[in-house]
Amino acid sequence: MSAESSSESASSSDSSESASQTNEGQTSSGRSGRPADDSSDLETIVVTATKREQSLQDVPFSINAQSQADIERTGADSIEELSRNVAGLTIQNLGPGQSQVAIRGVSAGQIVRDQPGVKEQVGVYLDESVISLSLFTPDLDLFDLNRVETLRGPQGTLFGSGSIGGTIRYITNQPNLAQHEAAFEAEFNSIDEGGQGGHLKGMVNVPFGNGNGAFRLVGYHTEYGGYIDALREGGRVDNDVNSGSRSGIRAALTYEPTDNISLTPRLIYQEIETDGFNRQEVFNLYANPYTTERPAVTFDEREQFLLLDEEFGDEFMLADLTATVGFDGFDLTSVTSITERDILVSRDASALSGSVSVDLGYPDEAVMLPSNLRDTTDVEQFTQEVRLSSNGEGVFDWLVGAFYSDTERVYAQRLPTPGYDAFTDAVLGAGTSAAVANGFPADSPFNSDLPYDIEQLAIFGEASWYVTDRLTLTAGGRYYDFEEVRTITTGGLFAAGDTAVVDETSSDGFTPRVIADYKFNDFMSVNAQVSQGFRLGGVNDPLNVTLCTPEDLEIFGDFQDYDDETLWNYELGFKAQTRNVTFNAAVFHADIDDLQVTLDAGSCSSRISFNVPSAHSTGVEAELNWEPIDRLFLSFAGSVVEAEFDSTVFDADGNVLGGVQDGNRLPTVPEEQASLSGSYTFPVGWAGSAAEGFVTAAWQYIGSRYTQPGDQVPGAGDFAHGLPFAGMTGAEVTSLDLELPAYDIAYLSGGIDFGDYTVTLFVDNVFDENALLSFDRERGGRARLGFRTNQPRTYGINFRARF
Questions:
Q1: Strand 607-629 to strand 632-645: parallel, antiparallel, or no bridges (unpaired)?
Q2: How many other C-beta atoms are found inside a 10 Å radius of the C-beta of residue 93?
Q3: Under a CB-based contact definition with an 8 Å cutoff, are residues 778 and 49 in contact?
Q4: pLDDT digit string (tens) for 327-363?
Q5: How far apart are CA 537 and CA 113, in angstroms?
Q6: CA gap 21, 10 in Å, rounded
Q7: Which CATH number belongs to the domain containing residue 709 in this structure?
Q8: Is 450 within 8 Å of 416 (Cβ atoms)?
Q9: What span, in angstroms and rounded, lies between the C-alpha atoms of 792 and 803?
Q10: 61 class by beta-carbon count within 10 Å (0-12 exposed, 13-18 middle, 19+ buried)
Q11: Single pTM value for the model
Q12: What is the DSSP string of 161-223?
């Protein structure tokens, strides 16, 4: 769909999400179409970040909105790709479907698959429906989106827990009651020394009932080429093992029986499947430079070792109903949603199980047994929000509402390792396996079931007072009440053997926000804000005691509960827009209390969370869009952040625990990040007067980062595996620099826009940068060491049509 036609698709009565879709041309990077506006003016994006329609420039706090035209220009296919052009937004890649989002440096360390109780720090919404899930941020397709809003700073007043760093909102195009529409997109791409991929996507919009209703259907299928090679036993190499696919549909119907009533039921389904993970290894128990009884292996870039195939799957379903009724003076909005997700993370855990077998004195045949760790997450969530909002023209705007959610999350692990029980009974004594099974299947040395039930009730409100034509004051708050019940049952040789142990967590409180906004004139404004956000605490899972060394058991054995995390945010922002320049900037400082830090519990193959009394994040962010001459569009987005601990945490022996020391950096986020892009259009005479050519270039810079706080401790990168196996003595040390290096990635594209259809040629990752995105360690690094990496240089062609 063209940017021009999309502006007509919003239903005038659906004030919550049907913002008019004029495009500001916020970015011009990546795979381009022509700029959204053929005149010399940068137009206005209308957003709903305050749950009412507002121009982006009128929102009195720091916000970025990537419009549909921006998404098409960049060729972005995921939130990670879209983040290139959003100042202060960091996406830590932890594998397919397992991204971790941070805004403004507010981050507490890598959350991994087996920490289901840890809550997110950035809330994620699809239109009005909350879809946040810690670690498993939904990897939604961006086709036919109106825009993606990034709200920086705590959004606890309107969006609740999990928005302590900010909120991301995917806003879809609503059914268009005025006209028929259709769009189609096809792409083919090829990865350097990798596989091939591509996609087919389509949209159709059909009005009905003499303008009282419309139906909009979106469907898509994407094939992802792989680029990681797996070394196998016997010297075989399987190429491109991390290929995958994503398929989905979105179906929405809007019906307006009267001028003041709007009903929009919707169904969304998406399925992601991948055959492996983007992990490049440097050490594996079975493949490393130190073995003499097995072939010594030194890994090249984008290589790993596998005994078993790996797999990731994610089924996501959302059914929601948004209803709006307009009255004289106020609107009533109800949002009801039901979410279901089924997630499978299936990993080759042979090195993990094998390393334990070495410690237990098992024979080499047991150490080499293939072992498959299968993590499953099943989520069912019901949410209901009801709110009233003013719709008059007075000196006050107000909004009040209530929110309820009930989330049932069942997390389970199984470690099927055929033949393992026989070795266990032979070495540790007959009947040992059966004695520790605790009702779980045989030949599975670790099993766990962790059902969670989380209920939340909140009441919120916000009001704005237009003191003068230039000065607006806004105040709001949210009262919340949470209750969480977790039951844990474990079994198997590696497990603690808990049976239906129940832990409960509850919390309530109030988070306020106060904003002042002053407009110097029609082009410039300044805003100041004080706001608070929060993140619910929880309970750690028991350590895998059998796997722990005595030292690790002493250090980490006493961690159980962790408290709520709270943050006070102070910021000053500046916004300016003229005919050909838009410039937004903000300086901010956040004081974080009881930061929930996550650490790897050494050799235990467990993660624990605990509270750090204080930390801070201070920085500056800026975004610039400029048309210096006709047809040339330039964009810049960048941020500089100092995010550090303000407290030191010691273990029982008086040693600094896991790098949590006053002055050390918070993990996963860079101190500096920036992007610069340019797009130039020109008439193509031989193709007809309506056609325009375009060429674009973009550059992204991400500064250095640490995956976990302890990675910045001197000597943290020296890993002694301690495993006498295959000719290794156990004293060998693998030395790594755990400061993930800064990286630059460039993008080029060009093509022709014929009006109704566009053809684009592109090259992503022009200089084939092999960026290290996060560090992966198995059992504290004793079993496996590696880094997750990005996609190599990729060439492609994209065809897009609008009807």
A1: antiparallel
A2: 16
A3: no
A4: 999 999 999 999 999 999 999 999 999 999 999 999 9
A5: 17
A6: 8
A7: 2.40.170.20
A8: no
A9: 34
A10: buried
A11: 0.90
A12: TT-SSEEEEEEEPPP-SS--EEEEEEEEEEETTS-EEEEEEEEEEEEETTTTEEEEEEEEEEE
Residue located via tokens 């009905």: 208
- Residue 488's domain comprises 3-802
In whole angstroms, give the CA distance from residue 62 to residue 49: 10
**Cα angle value 270/275/281 (rounded, 5°):** 130
Assigned token pair, 93: 């890649």
CB 366 within 8 A of CB 421: no
Number of helices (H) and strands (E) in the chain: give both, helices first.
9, 41
Nearest to 382 by CA among 399, 365, 406: 406
- Are the C-beta atoms of 686 and 663 separated by less than 8 Å? no
pLDDT 10s digits, 578-615: 989 999 999 999 999 999 888 777 677 677 788 899 99
Q: What is the pLDDT of residue 597?
A: 86
Contacting residues for 92 by C-beta, under 8 A, at least 6 apart: 99, 100, 101, 102, 107, 110, 668, 705, 707, 773, 774
* Backbone phi, psi, residue 434, to 5°: -65, -35
Q: Are 101 and 124 in contact (CB under 8 A)?
A: yes
Q: Which residue has the tokens 């975004």?
A: 623
- Do residues 535 and 564 lie in contact, with contact meaning Cβ atoms separated by under 8 Å? yes
The two tokens of residue 756 are: 């109704």
Name every residue whose Cβ is closer than 8 Å to that of residue 330 and which is 6 or more positions away in sequence.
388, 389, 390, 391, 392
Number of domains making up the chain:
1
- Determine phi and psi for 730, rounding to 5 degrees: 100, -10
